[in-house]
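In this supplementary section we document a worked example of the pipeline. Step one takes a protein sequence of length 181 as its only input; no multiple sequence alignment statistics are reported here. Step two produces a three-dimensional model, which step three serialises into structure tokens for compact storage. The input and output of this example are shown verbatim.
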Amino acid sequence: MIWPCYGNNTSIVILGQSIRATDKQEYIATTINLINHSYMNGQKIYIGAPRDFQVQFEKYPNVVFMPVSNKSDISTILDKASSEKSKDYTMMVFAHGLTPKSEKHPESARIYLSDGTPKIEDIAKIINNRLPTASRLKVMAPFCYSGAIHHISRTRKNTCSIAASDFRTISRSQIDCFGND
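The serialised model returned by step three reads:
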């Protein structure tokens, strides 16, 4: 995965609750790649994840780790990241997704955190209230039903998004080559 970091950039990673043992390994490996890329560019990376992930990231000098288990914790980490006053923010939301209630409302898709399942529309509101609207934001979402993340770029100026799947579809990384979960 290419981690787009340019100049005055602050990176934010939100990791959800692991459901399978391989999830945690995949979350950590992807995040370490992002940490190394940010470090080479002299940038901080804010990581919000379940508390048991902390030991994996505490040795990196450019990481600010905060436990995230609910949408209030997402607000806290975005407040901290916005204190950097960056021109650009790059955000990855990596969690298991839950299907939206209706195809007419893809923003109702949810992600698993340890103490809740916030809707994408709630995460969009938090982002819009916490990050400077004049800043550019890139949002990446490699999870099932992640197409719902496009709600953020549709409701916020200077924002683009990329998703691993449509809001109606599971991500291919979430099943093995035989179609098993």
